[in-house]
Design goal:
Length: 228
């Protein structure tokens, strides 16, 4: 059952005229998750942000999980889907970059996607677009679906790691000292001789960690380069 059907079956089930629109409820929930994370996303919290009673929220949706399904599909609808150019690797790279931008804007999305139960209309539209992008590759329909899942999984995992790192640094009072202390620890570890391959890799990479965008682009190129 897609989110639109899910919504239509559950909305207004108390027999009262709606005080809010579906879009307003979902947008409010997205705002809560964006600002406070999924752990803060409760029916009570969304109702408070909406300026209504908790029980009145059940007029629109029966449970938190159903609301989360609608939120996922709503934010996926923000991604632009330009017409394929025929260069499937370039188009898929652009799609992955846009996915990263979307997930960075909504940092709760990578985790939410892992527990998703339904594919809403916006999700199906994005999937169909990705399959069209991959059509010139000559891969079978199943292989195209798997290739898209592989790239999307990489993006979600990478963004999830980036978000976790940012949150960890955000809990540190002195970020510079934290980074410096971590660098000293790694230098001492590889200097012990116990990790020769790690020492070789760190020597090749240099002392300064690469920029986040640079790392993403390099890893994405490896993933997409292995398709086909």
């Amino acid at each position: 059952m897609d989110p639109e059907t899910l919504w239509s079956e559950r909305r207004h089930n108390r027999g009262r005229p709606p005080a809010h629109t579906r879009e307003a409820v979902v947008a409010t929930a997205v705002g809560v998750a964006d600002a406070e994370g999924l752990s803060a996303l409760t029916m009570r919290r969304v109702a408070t942000a909406l300026g209504s009673g908790t029980m009145s929220l059940y007029t629109y949706v029966s449970e938190r999980d159903a609301l989360l399904e609608l939120m996922i599909d709503a934010v996926i609808g923000e991604q632009q889907l330009p017409a394929p150019t025929g260069d499937w690797r370039a188009d898929l790279t652009a799609f992955a970059r846009d996915q990263r931008t979307l997930m960075t804007r909504h940092p709760w999305l990578p985790v939410a996607l892992a527990g998703r139960r339904t594919l809403g209309p916006n999700t199906l539209k994005a999937l169909d677009h990705a399959l069209a992008v991959l059509a010139p590759s000559g891969m079978s329909p199943r292989a195209r679906s798997e290739a898209f899942a592989l790239v999307s999984g990489f993006v979600a995992s990478h963004v999830g790691y980036e978000v976790a790192q940012q949150q960890a640094l955000g809990r540190t009072d002195d970020v510079r000292e934290f980074v410096a202390s971590n660098a000293r620890y790694l230098a001492a570890a590889v200097g012990s001789g116990a990790y020769p391959h790690l020492a070789e890799a760190m020597a090749a990479d240099g002392a300064e960690p690469p920029e986040a965008d640079e790392t993403f682009e390099r890893m994405l190129a490896r993933v997409i380069g292995g398709l086909g």
